[in-house]
Amino acid sequence: MHYFDNAATTKPYAEAMHTFNKVNEEYYFNTASIHKAGRDSAKLLEASRKQILQVFGLPHYQCVFTSGATESNNIALQGMLRRKKRFGRTILVSELEHPSVINILDHHQKEGFKVKFIRTTEAGRVDVDHLKSLLDEDVILVTVMAVNNIIGSVQPVEEIREALTDYPKVHFHVDATQAVGKVRFNYDGVDSVSISAHKFHGVKGAGALMLKEIKAAEPIHYGGGHEFDIRSGTVNLPAVTAMAKALRLSVEGMSNDKERLKDFNRMIREEMEALRSITIQPSGVPHIINLSFTGAKGEVVVNALSEKNVMVSTTSACASKRATSNETLTAMGVDKEVIDGSIRISMSKDTTHRDVKMLIRSLKEVYEEIGDVLK
Ligand code: PMP
């Protein structure tokens, strides 16, 4: 199988699996138990917390463990909006956000919050000048992703943080899910940052919300109060320790992978750009390529590639089961026909030269097979 859907999820590192299995066997205790086994497990939990914050260069932040970025985004945004609604009602959000952000805001709009969308440039980046023009005393939240999950555009996180320095009332949330192990950002000063372990070769079911101030967040469900009274429920220690391991490895391996992925990116682009009716979107990271078979349907291309044992996706896995249009491409002003024919190819450290050759060969075969519908 040739796997090109790493933006949906990645294969765990062998080392992360080793950590997961070992902790599952030797520290399966509840980190909230006060006996020695529980306390030893809690020590491991705290070591993982410290390590994660260290890797992000945020030792002065707090880190709440969650089940993944969906939960982290929910805790950050829902709790924050509840706390800040007496200061204002306006939320500024990029048009590029993941459903786990957009759908929270949709819901809050019905409850009287005002959601304003920050424009996107043709390159799929948040337009910072437009953001600045939307800032006023009623704004309480700005939420932007660090790397887009559909085309891989890198967002101006640091520039936005600078633009917000005169607005101390504004909470700045960054969904860094697709950035970890791919692009280094300075998150210092950002109010909250979400991550998800399975996007950087950890195991599924673990994520984190890093917070400048712990009191910025509020629980969205109630229970024993395990994680700072913010996230109740027995902590998934094996997955959390595996996440800390995967995070270190993915950040350490970042520069090694980059050149190889750039070469793969170049190979795919060169071969596909030569073909009529193929449109390739701009990107910012080498491991994501969004290309369109203009005139065809993206699902048809995905299924035809899948028959050849090559796995790609249409949009994000979270949206592909619904008949939604692709918000990122729409926001960039891409033609509907191009959007309909688009597929996402996403690579990782595990992608090999042979995978890329097979992908290119299969893309060309599919191109021939469906040639009559292409524009
Ligand atoms: N944000 C972004 C940008 C994502 O790509 C994803 C996963 N597709 C999420 C949030 C949600 O992550 P999870 O499914 O791990 O909760």
UniProtKB/TrEMBL annotation:
<dbReference type="InterPro" id="IPR000192">
    <property type="entry name" value="Aminotrans_V_dom"/>
</dbReference>
<protein>
    <submittedName>
        <fullName>Cysteine desulfurase</fullName>
        <ecNumber>2.8.1.7</ecNumber>
    </submittedName>
</protein>
<dbReference type="GO" id="GO:0031071">
    <property type="term" value="F:cysteine desulfurase activity"/>
</dbReference>
<dbReference type="InterPro" id="IPR016454">
    <property type="entry name" value="Cysteine_dSase"/>
</dbReference>
<keyword id="KW-0663">Pyridoxal phosphate</keyword>
<keyword id="KW-0808">Transferase</keyword>
<dbReference type="Pfam" id="PF00266">
    <property type="entry name" value="Aminotran_5"/>
</dbReference>
<dbReference type="InterPro" id="IPR015424">
    <property type="entry name" value="PyrdxlP-dep_Trfase"/>
</dbReference>
<feature type="domain" description="Aminotransferase class V">
    <location>
        <begin position="2"/>
        <end position="359"/>
    </location>
</feature>
<dbReference type="InterPro" id="IPR015421">
    <property type="entry name" value="PyrdxlP-dep_Trfase_major"/>
</dbReference>
<dbReference type="InterPro" id="IPR015422">
    <property type="entry name" value="PyrdxlP-dep_Trfase_small"/>
</dbReference>
